[in-house]
Amino acid sequence: MSHARIIVDRDFTIADVSPRLFGSFVEHMGRCVYTGIYEPGHPEADDQGFRKDVMALAKELGATVVRYPGGNFVSGYNWEDGVGPREDRPVRIDGAWHTIETNAFGLHEFVEWARRADMEVMEAINLGTRGVDEARALVEYANHPSGTYWSDLRREHAAAAGTSQEPFGIKLWCLGNELDGPWQIGHKTAEEYGRLAQEAAKAMKLVDPDIELVAVGSSGKQMPTFGTWEQTVLTHTYDEVDYISMHAYYQEHDGDAASFLAEAVNMDGFIDGVVATIDAVKAAGKHTKQIDISFDEWNVWYQQGLDTEDQPDQVAKEWKSHPRLIEDRYSVTDAVVVGTLMHSLLRHGDRVRIANQAQLVNVIAPIRSEENGPAWRQTIFWPFARIAELATGEILRLVVGADQQPTARHGDVDVIDAAATHDAETGALTLFIANRGLEEAADVTLDLRGFTASEVLRAEVLSIPEGGDRHTANDLQSQEAVGLVPLEGVRLGDSGQSTAVTMSLPALSWAVVQVKVA
């Protein structure tokens, strides 16, 4: 049995919970759009061809903001191809994923989908093959009311489609995607990108001064240019942008589950490094405003060692529309890791103000669907959904004292990983907690400082189901094999009022415990 003690103090707060932390991502890649969110002719399709079963799951997931249309896709995308009458839209090659893009689904369709799904749109512009003029035209098309070429064209297209002619009102804009990466169409040096992003940002804000802009940061901590890229880009763009992006994907290597389960340590360090670089540029440039982080791609993604039928190709092998690409099948282990990655984002909620799990449907996604078939929740759906639902109010700074677990990649780490929020309006104190231990259950005590707990409001746990193992997953045949179940035995102590909460977590588990406090 492992042991942990977590000190929770009312006065030790990090920041308010940003609703934009619970974002998602829809890219024109694989089956995320076509047969994912959009499938005319499906029994569950609505009047616009949107799958109602997928939309219902997206709403249940609780995603608040959704990034679109890429991703690598956007660096070769002409946004004009996806507007206007469908019969007039060109069919294009998408070099990023070696597929055919029909453009049957474009900007108007996505804005309408996001409106029905109650999500804020985060639009990415192409700074790979295009530039300043196309960027400012897209902002004008999307956000200007009327009376100009691009705004009147939007109204004309909307009228022909029978939808609202009002501006889209898109506030969040990404200035390209992963342009530090040699794989990216239009790859640039930091100097080249920094100057282009600065000029695009200036032009876009001349059209709509109220938009918020995200500069491209490093595609991962492992990039050889990490750190110097951010420094150079922000030196050029600091006055024009509001955020810099971060991307990170994690997977288990060579059966090393212990290191995989501790990848939130890597995420913690990655965020701390980017914050340090931002603030160094701020000091050197004598700036007064604060740049924050948009962690607009993160997830578990098995990019190596995939030769099995249930892990489709990373890039299509032949030219066709919406092939199966990276439809990872997520396990109990993956769900626990996703929970801890979300803990890391919360722990850095003072600077990480936007985060987007990549992606929403089918492509490394919490939701899976089949063409002309059902849609279901993957294991990673559950920690995301509960944190998005219950993390409200303020993020608390925890002190965790726990038994240590050795790992090959991260050294000794706490066997328990946690984050917590307190909502003063509702009186709810919510703890999100993972047991990284593969073999042993963990006894956990919450030491409440400045709080008195009176009632357990909710206690749920995701762990290895009976008869399963750490690789058990939800799939087409067993759509509910893994999920959240009641966590029994959460206690407030000997009386109805307590300053301690105790619980026992199964080995390899993620749990949420919410108590009423005063």
Write the layout of secondary structure elements.
Layout: E1 2-9, E2 13-16, E3 24-25, H1 52-61, E4 65-68, E5 92-94, E6 99-101, H2 107-116, E7 120-124, H3 132-143, H4 149-161, E8 172-174, H5 190-207, E9 212-215, H6 228-237, E10 243-250, H7 257-261, H8 263-284, E11 292-300, H9 332-347, E12 352-357, E13 367-369, E14 375-377, H10 381-390, E15 394-396, E16 399-402, E17 404-407, E18 411-414, E19 416-423, E20 428-435, E21 442-449, E22 453-462, E23 485-486, E24 500-505, E25 509-517
Parallel strand pairs: 1-21, 3-4, 4-7, 7-8, 8-9, 9-10, 10-11, 11-12
Antiparallel strand pairs: 1-16, 2-15, 5-6, 13-14, 15-19, 17-18, 19-20, 20-25, 21-24, 22-23, 22-25
Number of domains: 2
Number of strand segments: 25
CATH superfamily of the largest domain: Glycosidases
Please tell me the CATH architecture of the largest domain by its name. Alpha-Beta Barrel
Number of DSSP helical runs: 10
* Proportion of strand residues: 25-35%
Q: Give the N-to-C terminal Cα separation.
A: 32 Å
Task: Output mean pLDDT.
Answer: 96
Q: Which class best fits the helix and strand makeup?
A: alpha/beta
**CA-based gyration radius:** 23 Å
What do we call the CATH topology of the largest domain? TIM Barrel
Query: Unreliable segments (pLDDT under 50, ≥5 consecutive)?
Result: 306-311
